[in-house]
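Re: beginner question about structure tokens

> Can someone show what the tokenized structure looks like for a real chain? I only ever see the sequence side.

Sure, here's an example I had lying around. Input first:
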Amino acid sequence: MSRFLLALALLLAALVPSAGQAKRVALIIGMSDYQHLSSLINPVPDAKAIAAELKSHGFEVSEYYNLDRADLLDALEKFKREATGAEVALVYYAGQPWRSTARTCSRRPIWRSNARTRRR
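And the corresponding structure tokens:
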């Protein structure tokens, strides 16, 4: 799977103009450690490999690893500002999936991590 993602990142990098012609930014998040779940082996090394490859293709890369929810939301807000005016803004997340649960009839989802989600 990580080879596929690496190939996808390379393809995206090849499809856009060179770094001198366009602003390209990437947010890379690797989550291997969890409070209420078993640790994962691959996400952080996979994220670091993707980050290195994107840097070699002229992307401005912001890397974050093993964040808690508050730090993850801060990283997303910071990246939102960095991505303003960029020709390409890429987000790569490796780790356990997050899910959205709507608590009311509103269409606005409430995001929470698997660490707080009850298993059925």
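Each token stands for a local structural state, so reading them left to right follows the chain. Strands lie at 24-30, 60-65, 88-94, 99-101, 110-112.
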